[in-house]
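stuck on whats below:

***
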Amino acid sequence: MQPRAPFRADQVGSLLRPEKVKQARSAFAAGTIDAPTLAHAEDEAIREAVAAQQATGLSAITDGEYRRAWWHFDFLAGLDGVEKVATGTSIPFQGAVTKHENIAVTGPVRFSDHVMLDHFRYLNSLVTAGVAKMTIPAPSVLHFRGGRNAISRTVYPNLDNFFTDTAEAYAEVIRAFYAAGCRYLQLDDTVWAYLCSETERDRARERGDDPTPLPGIYRDMINHALAAKPDDMVITTHVCRGNFRSTWISEGGYEPIAEILLADTHYDGYFLEYDTARAGGFEPLRFLPQGDKRVILGLITSKSGTLEARDQVRRRLDEAAAYVDLNQCGLSPQCGFASTEEGNVLSEAEQWDKLRFVVELAEEYWPED
């Protein structure tokens, strides 16, 4: 019997873009190839990526997000009422400069259809061993990055209506992915980590947003959406601290949000970054309820190609066991390898070594699985 997701050895989702994908996307942007030619190049690269993931022994198989420029904006801009917009500033990573883009809510937020449903269907058609895993941003992401200033005051003079509409749109998203055959969906979410960071909370205040009530608001949005999940569908979240060209944004332990996130949101599993001291200790894991929920510990960094010491990872798992039942845990890289098309600073060979390492360690630590 296939184990139920999330798995003892799992992954967050994005993979370094192969050079031929980068070249095809550049050529398309320059107008020298058409959309079908670009799609063919992406299709072939995804086919190869699926085979490579299956060869590592992973049970969660993604498309590497090869068709995206951003992990979040590409999906969000496909919702009704949401647009990708040019800005004059970069997202505040540690010295790295991103594209000057963001998203804006310019109309009522709705879900009618989305190109990523077809992206999932193609991925699912290729997976012969394991489960096709789809990754999209969480509904909280649509609010926090731009806050009130990125949401039309004409359309939404009252933000309560925005939160209600976004939650219901995501319920429709979940229904649509289920109908397309998706049984493992991940809602990637930087917001919970940002709410652990005093720097990010201050940035929210500077733009006129009060961060204090947001955990409860986001919990309610997420739970409304998750109520649409059928029993045979698994939905997890990845709490990200920022991932662009091996840099990051937020730091601070999970304690400020751990209880509401782990105990009060209705996810089946949580991918938590634990590759550096920026994430704090394992103490917040005590809030994970006993039962079927899992925490996937991101102890393997995706930000460099250096493999962690095997004994050190095992010691970290042992340390976590003081606060959480390791029967409810798994292992993964701390984040994806390319949250944007630029990718992190490591080679494709090092990326695959990391993923094989995750599988090997999980097989050693949980041999019964």
User: Anything to note?
Assistant: The CA atoms of residues 76 and 269 lie 22 Å apart. The chain has a mean pLDDT of 92. Residues 19-365 form a domain with the TIM Barrel fold (CATH 3.20.20.210). The chain has one domain: 19-365.
